[in-house]
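Listing S7. Sequence submitted for prediction.
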Amino acid sequence: MARPVPETAAAAAADAPLGGASAEPAGWVCLGAVAGAQGVRGDLRIKPFTASPADVASYGPVSDEAGTRRFTLTVREVRKDVVIVSAAEVRDRNAAEALRGVRLYVPRAALPEPDEDEFYHADLIGLAAVGEDGTVFGTVRALHDFGAGDVMEIARAEGGQPFAVPFTREVVPVIDFAGRRVVVVPPDGLLDPPDAEAEAGEGASE
């Protein structure tokens, strides 16, 4: 349903623990992060957050989170977990190593429109998550892919720990961009309150 081009960190959030994603600058999408230097000429190792790893260089120059530095990337090699790129603005290994950890962004407008029934993760962040009866559960905070399919993380309206649901048509049957909401059908038991008797029993045994 969704293209893994994030997040908030939706894709950027893919490696973050639940509740640990950070928000992207409004109107920008994170394509990857600098993992370190490659060689002595200033090439960069990029951890991609795109569906196709080489797409980190496909949408024009990228910027850092503050928007103060721009880099024109050329893909040199695609490896299992990283993409090796050169940047015209990075001339040596020291300069490349200094960029370790920097996330790389493009304007949302630079991305092609997704196909029908596909969505960019970044477009889902911030939408209200409501039940079929209109109950407000919270707000979409991030999307993750831990290897078994996309998971939608929802920040609870009342605060506290976020919860996650499978991002499938059965669990998220409606995505309403005009209404700024998604309809969520939580799996049975997911949102049940804690069993007071069980908690009391656990406290008595301590």
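Caption to Listing S7: primary sequence and predicted structure tokens for the chain studied. The CA atoms of residues 31 and 165 lie 24 Å apart. Confidence is low (pLDDT under 50) at residues 3-22.
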